[in-house]
Amino acid sequence: MLTVTDARAVVLDYLTRGWAWLVRNVIPVLISLGVLITVMGGLLVVGAATNDYAINRHQGRAVAEVLAVDWRRTVIRFSTPEGEVKTPPFGALYPSDVQKGQLIWVEYDTRNPDLVRIAGRDWRLSLLPVAELLAATWTVVLGLIWWLRRRRSSGVSAPV
């Protein structure tokens, strides 16, 4: 006959094995997410450097007016030497510390005037945000892995 103590032992055994299964399968997922975010951060820096390379190869300079600033982009308007007025659809690269109505110098790719950055700024500005993102990502991932392994090795069952 199964007593309450035996039933509790069976349930705790199941939960412990379930916890081990969870730990065993969650850790590779956490590591994969960390690697994915790291690769994406690296690609972001490479993309910024590639855009700057294109601008530096065929560089034009102009004074631009800041039309709007929001969390997604900074809308600017400038004129090319040919007299064409451009408002790049994706805004300007590296737009921190600009305000609506401000006149700023911009550098753009003369072959593709929609590729514009604020003068004097380059891809190195992307390093700090990416480094912060990666530090936060790996702190969370490694912290969770440590916590999961510690719970498994200490023999503590999953919360009931």
Structure description:
By secondary structure, the protein is of the alpha+beta class. It has one domain (31-148): Beta Barrel (OB fold (Dihydrolipoamide Acetyltransferase, E2P)), CATH 2.40.50. It contains two helices and five strands; from the N terminus they run H-E-E-E-E-E-H. It has helices at 4-57, 127-153; strands at 59-69, 74-79, 85-86, 103-109, 112-118. It has a five-stranded antiparallel β-sheet with strand order 3-2-1-4-5. A hairpin with a 4-residue loop joins strand 1 and strand 2. Helix 1 runs antiparallel to helix 2. The longest helix has 54 residues, at 4-57. The radius of gyration is 26 Å and the shape is rod-shaped.
| CATH structural architecture | Beta Barrel
Largest sheet: 5 strands, antiparallel
- Spatial order of strands in the largest sheet: 3-2-1-4-5
What general form does the structure show? rod-shaped
Give the integer mean of the pLDDT values: 88
Strand portion: 15-25%
Count every helix, treating DSSP H or I runs of 4 or more residues as helices: 2
Number of domains: 1
Structural classification: alpha+beta
Q: What is the CATH topology classification name?
A: OB fold (Dihydrolipoamide Acetyltransferase, E2P)
Q: Let me know the number of strands.
A: 5
Task: Kindly provide the radius of gyration, computed on alpha-carbon positions and rounded to a whole number of angstroms.
Answer: 26 Å
Low-confidence stretches: none
What is the H/E string?
Answer: HEEEEEH
